[in-house]
Amino acid sequence: MLPEKTFDGKTGIITGGATGIGFGIARELSRLGARVILASRKEENLRKAAGEIHGEYHVLDVRDAAAVEAMAEKFGPVDFLVNNAAGNFIVQSDQLSPNGWNSVIGIVLNGTFYCSSAVGKRMIQSGRGGVILNVIANYAWTGAPGVVHSASAKAGVLAMTRTLAVEWARHKIRVNAIAPGPVHTAGASERLFPDEKIEEGIRRTIPLRRFASLDEIANAAVYLLSDYAAYVTGEAFVIDGGQWLSGADYWGRIRQMLPR
Ligand code: HXC
Questions:
Q1: pLDDT for 87-137, tens place per residue?
Q2: CA-based, 20 to 30 A from 137: which of 23, 37, 210, 224?
């Protein structure tokens, strides 16, 4: 979508960048000239993904604040950060253990803050500013039965996006979010759309009657990261085929299809 070389001379970190939506965004950034650093937990995934897009990688669990700080120190001030690392599984709220809650909150909410803080501080110190993009979900506004941990965390990241956008505008740092609905990726499909019946049920909740492609998500992401969006900050861009308009219980239909 954007002209080649849009990201020439720019360097950035993408958490959860070895697979799924993160990899889709990383691949497009790399194609547009960026130096891309993929950061996630599994080295085998990282090595393969970085090789494919001629990027670099760093093994990282975003829940570990000290490890996040060490990564930010290693790479120095970067031009952009994509907070994409996420964890999610379908569970009834009354059956979710504190540990299950903490693991999703730890990755999504705490991890996004640790990375934004460590990288943002260095963007401020460099005086060059930068861009942060948070990957949330369309249910950040409505909530969604079956994903109380993820919906709560994503709503927190939405508030963080707007807060940091205002606080850091004077440092020339823009902070935005994209909010996808259902997208086919290996990780999400296995956890969230485990069979054809469930997938078809979800498709019926989407006015455009299909899931997003990775390219559609990546195109929106790279626009917000680029200088073409230089006047956009604190925005959360929903890309979900209109799904959220069908009401707060759309994801709840997943729950209805699962055994209790
Ligand atoms: C109930 C579960 C569970 C499940 C894990 N737990 N899976 N509880 N149902 N299916 C509980 C465990 O029992 C344990 O609690 C606690 O969660 C931690 O589990 P671990 O496996 O030890 O955690 P960990 O290795 O840290 O794994 C984190 C994870 C996992 C979040 C649980 O799913 C993960 O690594 N996911 C990363 C990839 C991912 O989820 N990608 C999809 C993101 S899609 P107890 O009490 O037993 O110790 C997304 C956006 C969707 O977020 C939006 C769509 C529109």
A1: 999 999 999 999 999 999 999 999 999 999 999 999 999 999 999 999 999
A2: 37
* Chain segment 158-181, per-residue pLDDT in tens: 999 999 999 999 999 999 999 999
> Nearest C-alpha to atom 18 of ligand 1 is from which residue?
100
The answer to the question of residue 260 being in a domain is no
Q: Report if residue 227 sits inside a domain.
A: yes
Range of the domain at 122: 11-254
Number of domains in the chain: 1
Annotate 128-157 with b (16+ C-beta within 10 A) or e (fewer).
Answer: ebbbbbbbbbbbbbbbbbbbbbbbbbbbbb
Look up 139 and say whether it is catalytic.
yes
Q: Does some domain include residue 26?
A: yes
Give, for ligand 1, the residue of 89, 149, 206, 258 to mutate: max count of ligand atoms closer than 8 Å to Cβ. 89
